[in-house]
Amino acid sequence: MGPSSIMGGPGASASLGPEAEVKDWLKDVLQGRPWWMNVLMIFSAYMAFIYVPWDFFVKPVAEDHEVWFGITFTGVWAKWLAIPHEIVYAGAFYGFLRRRPWMAVWGPLYLAQVTIAMAVWPILHEGGGRGWVMGAVAGVPFAALTFAFWNARAHFLQTDRALTERYGEWALVTGASAGIGAAFARALAREGLNVVVTARRRDRLEALASEIEADHPVRTRVVDVDLTAPEGPEQLLDAVQDLPIGVLINNAGFGYGGRFEKVEAERLKGMVNLNCLAPSVLTHRLLPRMLHRHRGAIVFTGSVAGRQPLPLHGLYSATKGFDSLLAEALYVETRGTGVDVLVLEPGTTATEFQEVAGEIQHGGESPEAVVEVALTALGQQPTVISGWWNWLRAVVPARLSPRSLVAFIARHVMEVRMPADRR
Ligand SMILES: NC(=O)c1ccc[n+]([C@@H]2O[C@H](COP(=O)([O-])OP(=O)(O)OC[C@H]3O[C@@H](n4cnc5c(N)ncnc54)[C@H](OP(=O)(O)O)[C@@H]3O)[C@@H](O)[C@H]2O)c1
């Protein structure tokens, strides 16, 4: 495959070139905020990645000074206060970039603090009438910015547009009989969506459907199907063909751990069918209808395991890498169409997963928390890792150290989780 075939497919625009692609990417990064908020975001990035690190590591202690709430700190105090400054600016950059709901309150509060600092500093340093005038002049623009931010806080509040309005009335959740899938089904019903719940264990699905209908004014449909079977996805699609599916949650999946030569070939094949083939077929069939309606959402449940080679879970991590790459590509293909694509990458989550995978039990995040992360990120970004600790563990080593070293570390972690006869 040559570079031109990587850069553009049949649907790609004719005017592709490096500038066009960077422009598209920038448009995607900057969309959804007023221009002045984008300026604040870029300023926060400058402070977090250039100014504060320079201030902390390069500037001599004797020359250092920091202003907090209008009070000037110097020397060692100023040096150490660069750390909370870094947290503030890195947090602001992240909050702007991902349009996190807490920014709706945090942004105006931070700007109010700057307003006070700008007003108080001249009063303390200049004193007298001149100090008060300078304080007022310096404080007014920031007070105006605080006011503007408060008025524009809806940019950070997804709740202002209901999921039903954004995506449609019906959701299809695969792997809904347990764990993350059941949590997705409950959360979507809470948001007012009718839900098709599917997996193999019909009794579990019926219990969940009854619970959902008792708790929320929505409808449900139960479809029991084995998605490892090659005809499984088509059977599922036949069972929902009369419904306008607006949200597809490609969640069903399992892991199967152990040294590659020790595990059963049939189960490996089933895992590829369930984790890769089924979401591909379902997405391929449901996406055109969403595009036709100009609205829809497709979520893939990937895993942090898909970010690196994972010895003793090699094929599982490969299937999850598949999900992530497919979802991230579809995110770009569907920008501007009204359809949002997201890959949710959970870390260890407390579900039946570990038992099914044959791992020694080791706890994990709650599936509800994982689902909340996904629904908050949907429409904001192509991929989300649930939990900052998982983000640190999955992203930082992969970016800073050789891939093979990460694989050796991962093997060590997996050996602890795997029973002796499978290592
Ligand atoms: N738990 C974790 O630590 C973790 C971490 C990262 C990613 N994930 C991913 O999260 C997703 C959900 O897993 P989970 O943690 O919620 O595990 P879980 O509790 O074991 O749930 C898996 C779901 O998939 C369904 N499923 C399994 N085999 C199926 C088949 N052949 N046909 C149709 N449905 C099938 C199961 O239902 P039936 O058995 O009734 O068919 C169940 O509803 C998976 O894609 C997994 O890879 C999990």
What does this structure look like?
Mean pLDDT is 91; it is low at 1-13. The strands form two sheets. This protein has a seven-stranded parallel beta sheet with strand order 5-4-3-6-7-8-9, sandwiched between helices. A two-stranded antiparallel sheet has the order 1-2. It is 58% helix and 11% strand. It is of the alpha/beta class. 34% of the residues are buried. The chain has two domains: 28-158, no CATH class; 161-422, Rossmann fold. α3 (35-57) packs antiparallel against α4. Bound molecules: NADP nicotinamide-adenine-dinucleotide phosphate. The site of NADP nicotinamide-adenine-dinucleotide phosphate has 30 residues, from α8 and α13.
> In percent, how much strand structure appears in the residues?
5-15%
CATH architecture of the largest domain: 3-Layer(aba) Sandwich
Oligomeric state of the chains present here? single chain
Quantity of strands, as a count: 9
CATH class type of the largest domain: Alpha Beta
Query: Low-confidence segments, ≥5 residues, pLDDT <50?
Result: 1-13
- CATH fold description of the largest domain: Rossmann fold
Ligand inventory? NADP nicotinamide-adenine-dinucleotide phosphate
Biggest sheet record: 7 strands, parallel
If strands are numbered along the chain, what order do they take across the biggest sheet? 5-4-3-6-7-8-9
User: How many alpha or pi helices?
Assistant: 16
Task: Name the helicity range.
Answer: 55-70%
Radius of gyration: 25 Å
